[in-house]
Amino acid sequence: MGYGGKVAEQRRARELRAEIERCRGRGLERIGQLSEREFLVLGLALCAGEGGKTNGEVGFANSDLRMILVFVTWLRHFFEIDETRLRMRLYLHARLDLDAAIDFWSVLAAIPPSQFAKPYRAVADHSIRRNRHVFGCPGLSYGCTTTHRRVMGMIEAVLSPTCLSGVAQLAVARDC
Predict the structure, then answer these.
(1) Same domain flag for 7 and 76
(2) Same domain for 7 and 75?
(3) Following DSSP, what letter does each residue of 141-168 receive, concatenated?
(4) CA within 13 Å, CB half, 103
(5) If you average pLDDT over residues 148-164, what whole number do you get?
(6) Residues 96 and 22 in one domain
(7) Based on the domain organization, do 80 and 4 belong to the same domain?
(8) Longest dimension (CA), the chain
């Protein structure tokens, strides 16, 4: 690639960064601060999409620390939690620092290291993926049948046709 090509590539990269920043700003304006109800529905959506549906347990796994923080905050905010029943399990590549990862997630989620389950240590396969999450991918679980039933009941309510707006009902009807 010649000089002109590199200049064009750099200009395009700057344009993309500027577009991403504009979209972030517009997103913040549009969303604003979440109400109590919106925060409840956000947590339910996380559970429905990325959460574990095991009987008697509410779970969530994600490598984005913001998502883990939102989930654990949501769980503690909307449900009476016995902190000793919270568990975390890490999926971490074998060559990464397990102690540092446990310390990181323990502080972030306010879950003591003694409540971490045995980690899954993955052997990196460079043909599949190049980037590795330095602190791994945590899976958070809370073992409580009552909480699980409440969460699943609210997920069912959110997904029910009576809960959806008219526009969403039309979209669901078209897909069926």
Answers:
(1) no
(2) no
(3) EEE-HHHHHHHHHHHHHHHSTTTS-HHH
(4) 5
(5) 91
(6) no
(7) no
(8) 64
For residues 139 and 89, the answer to whether their CB atoms sit within 8 Å is yes
Distant-in-sequence, close-in-space partners of 166: CB < 8 Å, separation ≥ 6:
none
> Which amino acid, 53?
K
Closest by CA position to 51, among listed 35, 67, 73: 67
Query: Whole-model pTM?
Result: 0.81
H/E stretch holding 59 reads: strand 57-61
118 and 64 fall within a common domain: yes
Range of the domain at 72: 36-175
d(CA 87, CA 96): 21
Same domain, 5 and 77: no
With contact defined as beta carbons under 8 Å apart, do 113 and 149 qualify? Answer: no
CA-based nearest residue to 71, from 98, 111, 31, 102: 111
The pLDDT tens digits for 89-111 are 999 988 889 999 999 999 999 99
Q: Residues 124, 94: contact at Cβ < 8 Å?
A: yes
The Cα 87–Cα 107 span in angstroms is: 14
Q: Is residue 80 domain-shared with residue 98, that is, in the same domain?
A: yes
